[in-house]
Amino acid sequence: MQTFTEAEDIPRMTPAVRWLIALNAVVFFVQFTLVGEANTRDALGFRLDELPGAWWTIGTHLFVHAGFWTLALNLCLLLVFGPRLEHAWGTRAFRNFYLWCGLGGWLAHVLLVRDGTLVGATSAALGVSLAYAMRWPDDEVYLLLSYPVRVRWLVAAMAAIVLAVGVIQPGEGQGVAYLAHAGGLAAAWLFARTSTAGAGFDRLRQRVSPVPDVPDETPRAVPRSMPRTRERAREVDEIVAQSQQALTRRVSPAAPAAPRRAAGDHLTELDRVLDKILQTGIESLTGDERRVLEERSRELRKDE
Prior knowledge:
Layout: E1 2-4, H1 15-35, H2 37-44, H3 57-60, H4 68-89, H5 91-112, H6 122-135, E2 140-143, E3 147-150, H7 151-168, H8 176-208, H9 226-250, H10 257-280, H11 287-303
């Protein structure tokens, strides 16, 4: 199985994928040569009735496999779909996503099965495949190096098989692995959907924030974002500090009476505007009050 993509700068191997493949392979070798399959499953596999004592098995079950072909399938999926995702997201984000999908499989096992020993990383590997298919659905995968299939259809077929077998396979505890796999797919889908929504919201805020304030402007459908409000608050604090400094410099006994009254009236009006900002926020200012604030700010900058 091999992917075809027009991207030329995608590495064939990335750090997180390399370490995950190596760790799974080493544990499998130790499991079937030195320690024994049963002992490894008992030590690292997850069983609900062993909690809270063997809490570490919530994570270690991802690196124990029941057979060679299960391990080979998981490593193949990770090798084919993992490097491009890690290259796009970064090593830390990809590693966290892999563990997130594994925890999704674990949660599905706890909620839907509850008995038997849970082992294997298929939930995490399928989650990586689904994330790849949602981001690059039109890439092609060559099965047996000769049959091109679009990624979306390959992952959809795998998901359908997992869900069908997990639901209809008879026998107590026989659907453990398949239901956990479905949990990994669900966790990957949830992560992809929420991340897309969050990115879209960030892009919306970036587009709204640079819009300048215009006196007596008509109401806008999109509200201002929090970073803009904090910026306004800092600007108001700077204006207040500059006003106090200017007042200290200007007030003197020798100053003419008329300018003193004008400055006092101006400062009184500014104080009223600042009090209103402190009580109801800068968004409540009218057009005239905004002009007073801007004029006072310009005067202070000229004095400097």
